[in-house]
Write a structure and sequence with these properties.
By secondary structure, this protein is of the alpha/beta class. It is built from 9 helices and 7 strands; from the N terminus they run H-H-E-H-E-H-H-H-E-H-E-H-E-H-E-E. It is globular, with a radius of gyration of 17 Å. It binds S-adenosylmethionine.
């Protein structure tokens, strides 16, 4: 079992996002824009409070932490909300071996242990907290208007993403930033009936575009 002790022996001095862990999710260039968002938010607050919905093995968390170190002089905190459990539907799992792999990783608690391992390597002074559970069960208990920046990258199915966006509006401070991942396609580029029929899925290929879309984003 890949518990924290084993990971500590394997990678004593560094985080690990390699192998079959699907550790680096999405386009790498987004890490540049995430840092830029922190730089922007830091202009109005010296120590930022970030909420991340959906952390996986902590790659985006480390990007936030490094940006806090850089732009907030080593101050700030990130609260990560994630169940670290399999979340793809049975229908989704049949479509792609990669989703099956991700579900297996989370089912064996490898994802959670990797998150704990990787987030040890944040710069000193940056605080990482996490709450393990679905956003629907956790966000309603967080303090309103308490985050400078909220990043949405959890379940991308329409109802879940909509819930996270509506909650983010309540939880963000006035003038704060709400951002997210996986808006590959605008709704205007898609057949709306197609989106409606598939809105319970996390991700799916759009037939006319030869690209994937996340229904909660589009
Ligand atoms: C695409 S991954 C996040 C990737 C991560 N932000 C990164 O860039 O490295 C989606 C994550 O959302 C989590 N998740 C799925 N459903 C969720 C929900 N309802 N609430 C919160 N997190 C959820 C999954 O467990 C998974 O870790």
């Amino acid at each position: 079992m890949a518990d924290r002790q084993l990971l500590q022996h394997l990678f004593p001095d560094r985080p690990y996002f390699g192998g079959a862990t699907a550790g680096i999710q999405g386009e790498r260039v987004r890490h540049f824009f995430m840092s830029a968002a922190v730089s922007l938010a830091a202009q109005s607050s010296p120590a930022l409070s970030i909420l991340e919905i959906g952390s996986w093995t902590g790659s985006s968390t480390l990007t936030w932490a490094q940006a806090l170190d850089r732009y907030c002089r080593d101050q700030g905190k990130v609260l990560c909300v994630d169940p670290w459990l399999p979340y793809f539907s049975a229908e989704q799992l049949q479509q792609d071996a990669n989703y099956q792999l991700m579900a297996t990783l989370s089912g064996l608690d490898i994802t959670y242990n990797l998150f704990l391992h990787n987030t040890q390597f944040v710069p000193q002074g940056v605080k990482i907290d996490h709450m393990r559970g679905l956003s629907v069960d956790i966000l309603p208990y967080l303090k309103e208007s308490s985050f400078d920046l909220i990043y949405i990258d959890g379940d991308h199915a329409y109802e879940s993403a909509l819930f996270d966006m509506l909650m983010a509006k309540k939880l963000v401070k006035p003038g704060g930033l709400i951002c997210g991942d996986d808006l590959e396609v605008q709704a205007s580029e898609c057949d709306l009936a197609f989106l409606e029929a598939n809105k319970a899925l996390d991700i799916l290929p759009v037939p006319n575009l030869k690209r994937n879309c996340h229904p909660g984003g589009a």
